[in-house]
Amino acid sequence: MMRDWQKHTGMRVALGALAVASGLTLWALVQAFHGDELPPAPPLQMVSLETMSGGPPRIAADIDAAVENDLFAADRSAPSARYRMPDEDVADATPVALPEKPVVLGTAVATDGRHFATVQLNNDRPTLVHVGDTIGTWIVRSIERGKIGLQSPSGDRVNVTVPKPGN
After folding, report:
1. pTM here?
2. Per-residue exposure over 20-48, b if at least 16 CB sit within 10 Å of its own CB, e if not
3. How do residues 34-47 score in pLDDT, each as one tens digit?
């Protein structure tokens, strides 16, 4: 009976496929039970409330240098900037006014990465911009659906969205 099966080409192909499938099944079973070694675990760290709320370490004061300088010397003068605590904000810093932002009239996002947006600065005519282009003093950094990301010359980043109809 086996000889009759081996005479037909289709039966020989089927027997060969059965042998290959059996071999692959055996190989998959061996791989499933053979696991890779786990990487070593990181060392344990003790966490407590003191270490979490302590903040960054403070810089040690140079007491010896302060003692060696004469506080009442005639050539002594006030520093150019007032001393501030490390956590204190600088009060002398005046906020830098950002240039006027353009109005985004619409965006187009393509699947191949060639996005563009229609923007208008002041009362100028609308302009098409791509990522990397400039509009006024702003540089276009990103274009997404309904908004663009801009960067000012000072490095400040803002997102400008398309206004809703009626606004």
Report:
1. 0.43
2. eeeeeeeeeeeeeeeeeeeeeeeeeeeee
3. 877 878 887 877 66
